[in-house]
Amino acid sequence: MRLPMRRSFQFAAGLVLLCAGAIASFGQVDTDVESPKHKAWDMLWTAAFSKGTVERTDGIRALGLVPGNKRARELAENALNDPNANVRAAAATALGQMHAKESIPKLQKALSDKKIPVVMAAAHSLRELKDDKAAYEIYYDLLTGERKSSDGLIAAQVNTLKDPKELAKIGFSEGIGYIPFAGIGWDAYRTLHKKDPNPVRAVAASYLAHDPDPASAKALVKATNDKDWIVRAAALEAIAERGDAKLLPKVQEKFVDRNAKVRYTAAAAVIRLSEIEQSKEVKETLSSSSGEHSTP
Question: Residue 33 gets which letter from DSSP?
């Protein structure tokens, strides 16, 4: 199947600009080429521009764990023009998870995508970013099977939503709702619909992200070695959101996990935790310097 020429050109053009920017700034971000953060970026960058659709999808999706980072945001924005709909949907999801308000115009444009999963991912992210009007119009189209405005879903798209199999593909069942693993993606949805207790444990791991009890941190670290990939990935995502930089060494160990989704989640988690650690060190240095200057 031939790729859409315009979208392929936009993606390629974005790739060139991103590569040029990376070459100019890579050393400024992390001068130690052996650092966990540098290795993590290398993993995600390679995945984002891989020839394999699955690798691009998983790599872009993991970027959602890196909020407030220009490079991560630009990688995801460029992926909104990827020739493959799965990658575009992953990009839209990641931008919402990283709270990239700068990307709202690009997400609004993604509402015109010809593929339903991309439209719904963009709508969900816009709602997360408080751009409710655009998201609600899409939800109205979905609920009623009618178009609320000329900017809503096209008629052909609305018709496909009457097919239960199509709904399952985009992560919906008996209503509108997204699974709690933004960094893991739609594969988790399919797993959740199997008679398997592991997904329940994965949900539990995600909810421990903000539990201050040290015992929860230990439980999450232990879960990163679970036999089920979805539990390992959920635990890593929770550790990233927890923001405890002391857990960095344990997260880095998952760079060699047998599952690619787990590896990319670990890479994004390392970048996030490394930046938290660096920020803390800067604050401590400034505080120490200020104390020295104020001493009589």
Answer: T
CATH number of 180-296: 1.25.10.10
- 100-147 pLDDT, tens digit per residue, is 999 999 999 998 888 877 888 888 888 889 887 877 777 776 656 665
For 137-162, what is the mean pLDDT? 63
* Paired tokens of 110: 């993604």
DSSP label at residue 64 = G
Amino acid identity, position 126:
L
H-helix or E-strand containing 292? helix 260-294
- In this structure, the number of other CB atoms found within 10 A of the CB of residue 29 comes to 15
Highest mean pLDDT among 22-31, 170-179, 187-196, 197-206: 197-206
Residue 43: both structure tokens together? 């993993």
pTM: 0.76
Task: Give 151's DSSP letter.
Answer: T
Q: Please give the C-alpha separations between residue 195 and each of 200, 201, 233, in angstroms, as whole numbers.
A: 10, 13, 19
Question: In the numeric block, which tokens belong to residue 259?
Answer: 């599952």
- The full set of domain ranges for the chain reads 180-296
CA 74, 80, 86, 87 torsion-angle sign: negative
Q: Distance (Å, rounded) from C-alpha 230 to C-alpha 224?
A: 10
pLDDT per residue as tens digits for the range 26-57: 444 455 667 899 999 999 999 999 999 999 99
Smallest Cα–Cα separation from 187: which of 95, 80, 259, 100? Answer: 259
Neighbours of 105 (CB within 10 A): 10
For the stretch 240-274, what's the b/e string if a residue is b when 16 or more beta carbons lie within 10 angstroms of its beta carbon? bbbebbebbebbbebbebeebbbbbbbbbbbbbbb
What's the pLDDT score for residue 36? 92
